[in-house]
């Protein structure tokens, strides 16, 4: 899934719960360097860094069967297009911590981390096309 940021520097996505229980969700932002190349890398953006993409809210509770709109805001205008990956993952609540080791039981839970690509266009887009006429060997 991909989201594009509009000319005001904003975008959004709706997160929907298919669970029968409340889920606690945390968003993590990664800048994608050298996208679509063998040198592609994801660099984590620290929470509160106001020079990159900001996710609002970064953490939230999602009641069973409900949905939540999450906003993306590009804090500074870009000169070149930038791509980010925002990963949403379920995290345990404070109440999920085992308090007594005697009551500890085995339970297996599989949680998926859902990632979307957020594209931030340049403030002044410039169309550029290069053609390489060299023959392929």
TrEMBL record:
Organism: Escherichia coli
GO cellular component: a single term: outer membrane-bounded periplasmic space
GO biological process: cell wall organization
Record Gene3D superfamilies: Immunoglobulins
Name by which UniProt lists this protein: Fimbrial protein
Domain of life of the organism encoding this protein: Bacteria
Lineage: Bacteria, Pseudomonadati, Pseudomonadota, Gammaproteobacteria, Enterobacterales
Domain Pili assembly chaperone N-terminal: 16-109
């Amino acid at each position: 899934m991909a989201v594009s940021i509009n000319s005001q520097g904003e975008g959004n996505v709706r997160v929907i719960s298919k669970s029968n229980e409340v889920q606690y969700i945390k968003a993590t932002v990664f800048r994608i360097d050298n996208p679509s190349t063998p040198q592609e890398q994801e660099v984590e953006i620290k929470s509160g860094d106001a020079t990159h993409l900001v996710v609002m809210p970064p953490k939230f509770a999602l009641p069973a069967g409900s949905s939540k709109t999450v906003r993306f805001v590009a804090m500074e205008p870009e000169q070149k297009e930038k791509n980010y990956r925002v990963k949403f993952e379920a995290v345990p609540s404070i109440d999920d911590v085992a308090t007594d080791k005697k009551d500890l039981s085995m339970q297996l839970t599989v949680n998926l981390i859902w990632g979307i690509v957020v594209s931030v266009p340049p403030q002044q887009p410039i169309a550029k096309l290069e053609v390489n006429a060299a023959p392929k060997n």
